[in-house]
Amino acid sequence: MKNLFFLMCAYLCTTAMFSQAGHIMQGVGSVNMSMGGAATAQPLDISGALHWNPATISTFDDTILKLDVGLFFSSPELSSTVPEFDGEGQPTGNFFSGTTEDDRGVSPMPALAMVWGKPESKHTFGASIFGISGFGVTFPESTSNPINMPQSMGGFGRVESDYMLLQIGLAWAYELTDEFSFGIQPTIDYAALELMPNPTANPTQAGYPSTDKASAIGFGGQVGLFYNSPSGIKAGVSYKTTQYFGDFDLDNTYLDGTTGTNSFNMDYPAILSFGLGYSLGFIDLALDYRIVDYENTDGFSSVGWTETASVQGFGWKNINIVSAGLQYKGINKFPIRVGYTYSSNPIDSDVAFFNIPATAIIKNAFQVGFSYEFSDKFTMDALYHYGSSGGSTSGPLLNPQFAQAYPPYGAIPGSAVSYDMTTSMIGIGASIKL
Predict the structure, then answer these.
(1) Domain for residue 6, yes or no?
(2) What element of type H or E holds 33?
(3) Which range is the signal sequence, renumbered to this chain (predicted)?
C-alpha cells in the first residue's frame, strides 16, 4: 500500500508541472470541485477534506485512496489600444487597437489523497499531493495588437507564462469529543515559474529578457476545527498559513543574446475558511466563505516599478470567495451534485498592466458532477466545470518613463489593456477502500 502511494506521488510530480488553472484552485478533485469547492464543514470525500479542513478527516474510519485527473481548458483574450502619433510626435486623434487569443491548449490537473483510521480510534491520518495553484498564458507575437508587437516596435512580443504550485501535506485529526474534532497539517511545496518576457528583470536596450524555468521550495501548514452534530448540522473553520518560499533564481536571455540573472520571491497567501454543512436523508448541503490575504504576501503585495524599470510585484488586493454545493443521494448508488463559486477580483484597474502574465481570474464558476458506487469499496466520480471572468479586467498601459508626469505608475494617456477569459474542465476520479 505504501509503495503504491509513493508511485502515485512520483506520477503527480511529473504531470502536475503542466497544470494551469488560475492562481488559487477553487477545489481539489471531482467531488470537491462539483460542490463548488465547499468542504470546510462538509467532508464528502477525502480530497476536499484534506485540502480545506484537516479536522474533517475524522469522519473517515477506513483506509481510503483517491485519485483524480482533470482536463482543463481556458480561452483568455488580451486586448490593447494605443494612440497614434504623427512624425512630430503629436497625437493624431486616431487609435490602434487589437486582440490576441491564447493558444495554450489543454492542461492536465491530477490530485492524489489517502486517509487511514479505525472506528475505535480517536486518531485519523492523511496524506495528499495536490496541484493547488497556477497560472499560464500563451499570447503569440502579433503586428495587429499593440501589446503583442515585437519589442523592437514598442510591444512585448510573445507573452507566455507558466507557474505551478505542487503541495504535499501530512494530516492528523483528533476527536476531542463525539462531536468536535481538531486537525493539523504541515505542508511542503514545490513551485516552478517561467516568463516570456520577464518583467521582474532589469530591461536593457534590447528590452526585457525571457527566462528559463526556475523552481523554489516552500513550507507552511493548516489547522482546523470541525463540529458534527447528530442533528445533521455541521460547522468548521480552518486556517492555511502563508506558504513561505525561497527565491526563484531566474536565468535570463535578452533578444540580443546577452544573459543575466535576477531573483523574485512569490509566496502563497494565507487563507481563512469558514464553513457550514447540513445533512439529512438524501440531501447534503455545503457553504464556505474564504478570505485570501494577498495584501501581506510577497510577490503580490508589492506593486510598481523599481528604479531600474523592473516590476516589483503583481499588486493584488485581498479577495473573498463563496463556495456552495448540494448533493442529492435519492438515486441508488448514483449521487448527483451541483456547485457554484464566486470570487472577487484581486486586480484593480490601475495595476491591470502588471498582471498580463496572470490573467486567470474567474468570478463565477458553475459545476455539475455525479458518482457511481460500483461496490462498497470502489466509486467513480465525474465532473464538468465552466467558469467566466464576468467581464474584462482593464486599465491603462504603463511606462516607467512616464511615471514622473503621470504618477504613480506612468499611465500612457489614451491607452488601454484588458483581458477576460472563460474556463471549462472535465474531470474523473476513483476512490478505493483498501
Answers:
(1) no
(2) helix 29-34
(3) 1-21
